[in-house]
Amino acid sequence: MTRTTRRSVPWRFAVPAAIAAATVGAVTFGPSAFADDSHPGLPEQTAEQLVAKVAAARADALTGTVRIDTDLGLPALPGKAGGNGPQALLSGTNKLQVALDGPDRQRIGIMSDLAEYNVIHNGRDVWTYDSRAHAVTHGTFDHGRSDVASLVPTTPQDAARQLLDLVGPTTDVRVDGTGRVAGHDVYKLRFAPKAQGSLIAAATVFVDAKTGVPLRVTVDTVKGGKPAIDIGFENVSYDKPAAGTFDFKPPAGARVEEATPNEARPEAPGTPGTPGTPAAPTGERAEPGLLGEGWATVVELPAGGEAKDATGLLGKLGKPVPGGTLINTRLLNVLGTDSGRIFVGAVDADTLQRIAAQR
User: Fold this and answer.
1) Residue 290, SS3?
2) In this structure, is residue 126 part of a structural domain?
3) Is residue 244 in a domain?
């Protein structure tokens, strides 16, 4: 018999669905594996032409597999061997099964060791199912909400979209040769910060020469070595998924956690309430804040909400520093303050701590 409890479901459970919805209509998806060593001769394109080509690419439906290689330099994650949810994406190689049908229907499954973690977005309903824990969560999806999930790239297209947002005075953009990805000729579009201070050395988008589709994205750090993030698609089809792909019914015996409208966290004035997140303390912003600009942007999560959800990870992986706890990686630094706020940025630890102190 399925068991149901009512409680607040942290919005982080909807991270893959939120990212997929933000991506559809902005940048399309394309067939991909990882690049080979070919260097085809292609007509010359300027960086401006390629940026415009990527921004104009579109797709309405697809099914396929996303491969994510992550090497942030984190210590071994406690419990990772027994977990297959979003935390698994923080290190190693992971694969996601993806089905998309416009902005209102997505299904993403994180596959791991005969287990899976599924996120299903169908209309306003968002379901997650952790097969290992036999646990289900249910909430509603708010397209108007600004969420930290939209800041975290988990597909080549989402990563490319964020890089396009950086194009401006702080960024050097150039064409860095050609290649082939999954049998497709590609241009390599390289983005790099002009000023020092970012932990990111450069990011490269492999752009399909015919369609403008980003087939792969790599992110390199100032510390060198292999890319910190390498995201690509495998086995992708543009056929419209069957309608039943997005249907979900909690399996018999599963524990169900149900978010209800009166459990929604209060939002900033004029922003619709979103169920599934705890109330923010009086005087704190309900939404993540962005500090700085360009490659030195720092995200501030107010106390409660997503910051509260991340406290456990900080405790497991972080080290004590004056005023809080710090996670130091090759790509990002994460600071949890004693006041309950969290600051995240691709900047060095001293810069992050200085910004937090000023807040």
Assistant:
1) strand
2) yes
3) no
pLDDT of res. 15: 31
List, in sequence order, every beta strand (DSSP E) within 241-351: 255-258, 289-291, 298-301, 319-321, 324-328, 333-337, 342-345
User: Which DSSP state fits 172?
Assistant: E
pTM for this predicted structure: 0.70
Quick check: is 252 in a domain?
no
- Rounded to whole angstroms, how far apart are CA atoms 186 and 209? 5
- CA 304 to each of CA 87, 154, 207, 328, 354: distance values in angstroms, whole numbers, following the listed order: 19, 24, 40, 22, 22
CATH code assigned at 306: 3.30.310
- Coil, strand or helix: which one is 307? helix
Query: What per-residue confidence (pLDDT) applies to 281?
Result: 36
**Residue 87 DSSP SS3:** helix
177 and 28 in a common domain: yes
Q: CA–CA separation, 317 vs 90, rounded Å?
A: 12
Helix or strand holding residue 139 (H, E): strand 135-140
Kindly indicate the confidence band of residue 93, based on its pLDDT and cuts at 50, 70 and 90: confident
Tell me whether residue 332 is in a domain.
yes
Q: Looking up tokens 């993806």, which residue turns up?
A: 98
Residue 320 contacts residue 309 (beta carbons within 8 Å): no
Task: Count how many domains the chain has.
Answer: 2
| Residue ranges making up the domain that contains 202 | 3-237
Within this chain, do residues 157 and 300 fall inside the same structural domain, yes or no?
A: no
Q: Is the pLDDT of residue 227 over 80?
A: yes
| Close Cβ partners of 73 (under 8 Å, ≥ 6 residues apart) | 223, 228, 329, 330
On whether both 217 and 328 belong to a single domain, the answer is: no
Does one domain contain both 329 and 207? no
User: Where is the domain boundary, 179, 204, 237?
Assistant: 237
Q: How many CB atoms lie within 10 A of CB 177?
A: 11
Q: Which two tokens stand for residue 348?
A: 């060095």
Task: Kindly tell me the burial class for residue 157, based on how many C-beta atoms sit within 10 Å of its own C-beta (0-12, 13-18, 19 or more).
Answer: buried
The bridge status of strand 255-258 relative to strand 289-291 is unpaired
| Residue 85 near residue 131, CB atoms below 8 Å | no
